[in-house]
Write a structure and sequence with these properties.
single chain; 297 residues; mainly beta; Sulfite Oxidase, Chain A, domain 2; Immunoglobulin-like; 2 domains; five-stranded antiparallel sheet; 4 helices; 19 strands; elongated; binds the ligand Nc1nc2c(c(=O)[nH]1)N[C@H]1C(S)=C(S)[C@@H](COP(=O)(O)O)O[C@H]1N2; binds molybdenum atom
């Protein structure tokens, strides 16, 4: 966590690489969250498996643990929204239990939770998943899924099921909680570059900064246009946190001539794909487009 602090840009208006637990965004289907006792909690691996498995909290927490930085982003947030954050999670890889249970090669899983939430997605995505019981060096707090939540690298927040109680392996796909309402949020995240900080120096320099994220594709670069998209320059990317599923910070400084400037920001992911230009709102598969802001030079 100290390392994350040291690697963060110190820019007014820009949050660090690690989000403090108290300010980590939160999305819940209910207004009152389940209050689960770790002693009575267990996790079942059921369905199309060779052996069903049941794990207690002690079973899980007494195994050798890993610490992973991972970013979460909600499919329902606006393009330049605030529902994207990063924590250091402590837990164990899901694949240990999937292997022990013996799963089919294909199709899907449904994760079920103590608040009656459930989400279905490809089994292949869960193989890289993580069962977290710690967050930022403490026990996972109730609002983020105590005692145990799932983390699925590079995928929208909604399948990162909190208060997890069951992993059911399926042979045929079904619809999850949000998909029944028309959302398509079970896949990999879209690429985004956000613009959250705008600072004006006494000498007329303007500094822009934000976070950028493309899940496990990673970020190749962030480009900034100060002429409404006619020409582009590279922003400076901040140092990376360890791990395959983390956001980056970016910054850009220039001295504009007097007058209004249309600033546009876009990211290019690690596979060389430019963030899609066409604008859409969050429903049903996540917001898209390039963040644009008018700045007074
Ligand atoms: N059990 C359960 N898990 C859940 C949810 C929920 O309402 N219930 N919300 C999902 C959504 S939509 C998102 S974006 C993430 C948010 O995780 P956070 O609240 O820890 O930030 O949790 C997901 N997991
Ligand atoms: Mo979400």
């Amino acid at each position: 966590m100290t390392e994350a602090d040291e690697r963060s840009f110190d820019i007014p208006g820009l949050s660090g690489l690690l989000t403090p637990t108290d300010s980590f965004y939160q999305v819940d289907i209910n207004s009152v969250n389940p209050n689960v006792s770790a002693n009575r909690w267990n996790l079942r691996v059921t369905g199309a498996v060779e052996n069903e498995i049941e794990l207690s909290y002690d079973d899980l927490t007494s195994m050798s643990v890993e610490h992973r930085f991972a970013t979460l982003r909600c499919v329902g947030e606006p393009l330049n929204g605030e529902k994207m954050d990063t924590a250091l999670w402590t837990g164990v890889p899901v694949n240990r239990f999937l292997k022990a249970a013996g799963t089919p090669d294909e199709c899907c899983v449904i994760l079920r939770a103590e608040d009656d939430y459930y989400e279905e997605f490809p089994l292949s995505a869960l193989r890289n998943g993580f069962l977290a019981f710690g967050m930022n060096g403490r026990l996972l707090p109730r609002k983020h899924g105590y005692p145990v939540r799932a983390l699925v690298p590079g995928h929208w927040g909604e399948i990162n099921v909190k208060w997890l109680s069951e992993i059911e392996v399926l042979e045929k796909p079904v619809e999850g909680f949000w998909e029944k309402k028309g959302w398509h949020g079970t896949g990999p995240v879209e690429t985004v570059a956000k613009l959250h900080a705008e600072n004006h120096g006494d000498d007329g320099t303007v500094q822009l900064a934000g976070h950028t994220y493309a899940g496990t594709r990673g970020i190749d670069r962030v480009e900034v246009s100060v002429d409404g998209g006619k020409s582009w320059q590279n922003a400076t990317l901040g140092p990376k946190l360890p791990g395959p599923d983390v956001w980056r910070q970016w910054r850009f400084e220039w001295k504009p001539r007097v007058g209004k400037k249309d600033v546009v920001v876009r990211a290019v992911d690690g596979e060389g794909r430019v963030q899609p230009e066409e604008f859409s709102g969050p429903f049903p598969s996540g917001s898209s487009g390039w963040v644009t802001q008018t700045i007074e030079g």
